[in-house]
Design brief:
The chain has 268 residues and is an alpha+beta fold. 46% of the residues lie in helices and 20% in strands. It has a five-stranded antiparallel beta sheet, with helices on one face.
Length: 268
Amino acid sequence: MKNISNETFYEIERASRTGRLDLFKTLGCDPHFHPDIEILVVTKGKISVTINNNTRILNKGDISFADAFDVHFYDILEPGSIGYVIIPDIKNIAPYTALTKKQVLKENFLTDDKIFKRVEQLIVPLTKTYQTDCDLYKHNIVLSVVGLITYGIGFEKKTGRESTATMRDILAYMHSNITENISAASVARQFGYTPNHFSHIFNSYTNLGFKEYLNYIRVGYAADLLTMGEKVLDTAMKSGFDSLRTFYRAFSERYGITPKKYAKNKSV
């Protein structure tokens, strides 16, 4: 796990998460999305929250819930505002994942004093035990938080939102198969689209080309491998790149330095 504060998160930094729980106080962030849910609980001040182009001003007691691959960002509106962000690994909230197979949340925001108080009571001890090794305890608390919030918001059938749900499935599929030999054509076939139509909906949803996005998430996975001491050549191959040259170019575009320099900096 990683103790995080004052950072902007992008989808690439969530791509290779396994079993982690991120908990931090937000100081605002740029638009981003990732394969995991992201909860914001405002305990002081005012924070503007935008999820999928829907903006709300959250005060103390308000909660936002960004689902997997929802584009979201925060702006602090008052000095001293406090909002706790919780990002659990999606694998550790299986009951929620099961519920969303055929349903979606009615909305992304919740104002409910009773639920907020119960959530706050759970978050306070969570912040104090965050650095401990008792992962089972922490993940159970987070699952309780997710359960309370989603109960308060409620679910509805996916009718009318299939396009968004399908794109989430596509992105989740890509994140789960970033080391495999996948292409725009193969993913299009997997989801029953023609290549041209798939490219159109993918670009309109992500503002990126398929290959550009795939290389982006592969580079993030590679960065994690380098941090763990993996050699550059092995990292390139394990991250799904078919050539060292392509890997170097994609990595340098993302981080501004070569993989070798990145690995050296992380080892210092």
